[in-house]
Design brief:
The protein contains 19 helices and twelve strands. The protein is of the alpha/beta class.
Length: about 525
């Protein structure tokens, strides 16, 4: 079996984004608490950690609308390591705001952390300013290597520096010399914005350095990480700005059609996402070079990747730009088989890919997924609208899938139970022969006991939390992606309960095996 294959082994894991970690700077980060969370997972017998996309977020703070498919989230950079090597001083923290311990207040966090990251950069480029600054030769060499190796970095840094120069305006509103620059104009802007460009290179180095150190720590404990790739990219992103010919745009940079999904049971007008669509004919000419580079990069950051809205590799809903709803869209064919064939070849026939195949899925989408042996997702929360012919009930799980209690777009299990009609509650109680007093853990046991290779539970369900803690309410613009848990939530009682449950259903890494590895 290949290293990343998911067949014939039973994994148990948790879904939680690093922004949700506890900590003293208003948002979870890649510092001490992240390592403590990995230790918590190890003691709980869990071996899979799933995250949301780790990109540099833009308007709305959604990890699914980042400025870049390659750059990391600066807000996740841990500040204490910068303090330890003198890039930040104690006095820099004197005016730190008071934080909400269970919600990320993005406006305050962005202002505070950006100010400190800029101070750290200023000390790095002029270390004589502070005698205490001590970035050693190894740090400098690593930074130089990162800049040399990261082919995406210069476009990202120029894009972000230009956004600052134009006070945050989207790229399609910039002046022509940078909106669609030729080589000479691009070089001139690189020189003009050189200081800001170097700052963005520097913070990406800090993010990637800290992330790969954390990933190595997790992998050493046999914990694998599942990353996440949004199918579409944001219009106001370096991906579109630097690769206009790969997207279906007009001469002014505006999309001809945009992404969404058609009307369904949940929405009479569908969902209008507004992302520009791919010009797949141009991707095909390059052998899907941009896509393969994107996925390969994410497979360096994570051990597996989930492809969001997988069905769009087969067909996607294209809505004319300017429409107020998604009603007037139409299904448009994508080169799914050809793309996946190229991707499989580029990855040497090792496809550590997970398909988000939720919603209304045609047989052609299932055929594409099955042809390349890509596991799909089963969400137990979807299983109790009816008990007949429902693919999401535990007894209908298959081995080659990932079973979840709920996802980042769902209500928590406790919130779900409180809100669904009584007939759904009755089906749930009869199916599990329960009185409904411990909804989350009833579902966790069902998830772990399924035949699915992977069983993954959001941290909110592990903690039996109500709706206030959910990550995202689709269609609601404010207040999403903000939930955080507390340090005391990672307690011995919860570790023991997770371990015993995972062990009962053959998913826990044996503690004796852990101890033997530590002794070795």
């Amino acid at each position: 079996m290949e290293e990343n294959s998911m067949e014939y082994k039973r994994y148990a894991g948790v879904l939680v984004h690093p922004t949700s970690f506890p900590g003293k700077y208003g948002i979870g980060d890649l510092g001490k608490e992240a390592y403590e969370f990995v230790d918590f997972m190890e003691r709980s017998g869990l071996t899979i950690w799933q995250v949301l996309p780790l990109g540099h977020t833009g308007f709305g703070d959604s990890p699914y609308q980042p400025f870049s498919s390659f750059a990391g989230q600066p807000l996740l950079i841990a500040l204490d390591p910068l303090r330890e090597n003198g890039l930040l001083l104690d006095e820099d923290f004197n005016d730190m705001p008071q934080w909400n311990s269970q919600k990320v207040e993005y406006g305050k966090v962005i202002e505070f952390k950006t100010r400190l990251l800029k101070k750290a950069f200023e000390r790095y480029i002029d270390p004589d300013v502070e005698d205490d600054c001590s970035t050693d030769e190894e740090f400098v060499e690593a930074y130089d290597k990162f800049k040399s190796d990261s082919k995406w970095l210069d476009d990202y840094a120029l894009f972000m520096a230009a956004k600052d120069h134009f006070q945050g305006m989207p790229w399609y509103m910039w002046e022509d010399s940078i909106k669609k620059p030729n080589a000479k104009q691009k070089s001139a802007w690189m020189e003009k914005l050189s200081d800001k460009i170097e700052y963005y290179r520097f913070i990406q180095f800090l993010f990637h350095k800290q992330w790969f150190e954390l990933k190595e720590y997790a992998n050493e404990k046999d914990i694998k990480i599942i990353g996440d790739i949004p199918i579409f990219v944001a219009w106001d992103s370096v991906d579109v700005w630097a690769n206009k010919k790969l997207f279906d745009l007009d001469s002014k940079g505006y999309p001809k059609k945009v992404a969404g999904v058609p009307p369904d049971f949940f929405s009479a007008t569908g969902q209008l996402w507004g992302n520009p669509l791919y010009k797949w004919s141009e991707h095909t000419k390059t052998g899907y070079e941009w896509w393969i580079s994107r996925i390969s990069h994410q497979l360096e950051i994570a051990d597996y990747v989930r492809l969001d809205h997988f069905r769009a590799f087969d067909k996607y809903w294209a809505v004319p730009y300017g429409e107020e709803t998604a009603i007037k869209g139409k299904w448009t064919k994508a080169p799914g088989v050809d793309f996946m064939t190229h991707l499989e070849s580029a990855l040497a026939h090792n496809m550590p890919i997970i398909a988000e195949d939720l919603g209304f899925i045609e047989q052609s989408v299932l055929d594409l997924r099955e042809r390349f042996n890509i596991p799909g997702m089963k969400i137990l929360q979807f299983g109790f609208g009816n008990l007949e012919d429902n693919d999401y009930l535990p007894h209908n799980c298959v081995r080659n899938c990932i079973c979840y209690t709920s996802t980042h777009d769902n209500d928590t299990m406790v919130g779900w139970y409180r809100c669904v009609p009584e007939q759904n509650k009755d089906r749930f109680r009869r199916y599990f022969n329960t009185d409904g007093n411990d909804v989350s853990w009833t579902f966790i046991c069902a998830c772990f006991s399924s035949v699915a290779n992977m069983a993954i539970v959001p941290m909110q369900d592990i903690l039996s939390l109500d709706s206030w803690s959910r990550y995202n309410v689709p269609g609601v613009g404010d207040g999403n992606w903000a939930w955080r848990f507390k340090h005391e939530d990672m307690n011995p009682y919860l570790e023991k309960r997770l371990f015993e449950t995972a062990k009962l259903y053959g998913r826990a890494k044996d503690k004796e095996e852990q101890e033997e590895q530590e002794e070795d």
